[in-house]
Specification:
Elements lengths: L7 H32 L5 H38 L1
Helix pairs in contact: 1-2
Length: 83
């Protein structure tokens, strides 16, 4: 039985499906960080922690995006080669 690999469209769909949740999470972390910077001006570390969390979330998203784009490109080349 032949192994069925994901198509480029499936990878693009995964990218499109992952983007909105990551954007919402990122906006929430940044908004919370801004709130903490304003509410606790004497302790900026509180807001800084959430900015670090936002940076980690952004780094994870960018890494996933790059991997999925690379796999989509490879799947498109393989599909083109097999036609």
């Amino acid at each position: 039985m032949k192994e069925q690999r994901p198509t480029p469209a499936q990878y693009k769909s995964a990218i499109a499906g992952l983007t909105p949740p990551f954007v919402i999470i990122e906006v929430m972390f940044i908004a919370l960080a801004v709130y903490l910077f304003v509410a606790y001006t004497e302790k900026p570390m509180y807001g800084g922690i959430f900015l670090i969390f936002a940076g980690v979330v952004a780094a994870v998203y960018v890494a996933m995006l790059l991997v999925l784009r690379k796999k989509a490109k490879r799947a498109a080349e393989e599909l083109k080669k097999n036609k």
